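[audit] Reproducing an earlier prediction to check determinism. Same input, same settings, fresh worker. If the tokens differ from the archived copy the diff job will pick it up downstream; this log only records the rerun itself.
[audit] input (137 residues):
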Amino acid sequence: MSELGVGRPTKRRAGSAVGGLPVADSRPVLDGDAVLGSRCTVCRYPTAQQHLPWCPVCYASTEPARFARTGRTWSSTVVAIPVGTRRPPFGLAYVDLDDGPRVLVHLGEPAVLEIGTRLEITGADDGDLVATSEVQR
């Protein structure tokens, strides 16, 4: 009898940090006063991923785009378990950027925000976008 899981194929790649192949990081990137991403050249669909070869909606080509750092909360939660290096409690929110896509951000304070609360992306922490309420500033 073999050990459970030994020899099983997996869809996960180990990543270059542990000797595997490089894995693309799909998290949004903050560049000064804008979130970097792509926009479809035909249907104008925005996405916070850079270098997409085609639009996920209509399959046309995309072009680089810069989006505002401000937007409105679509949803938020407080996480009560440790995730990676983050220790609870910490807040997460989806933000609909004013002129672009919906992005996931870490909140400056662990709180559940009312839908529609104005947020501004103020920086990045370990590769994740961080936002605070425009009222708190």
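[audit] rerun output stored. Observation attached for the diff report: The chain has a mean pLDDT of 87.
[audit] end
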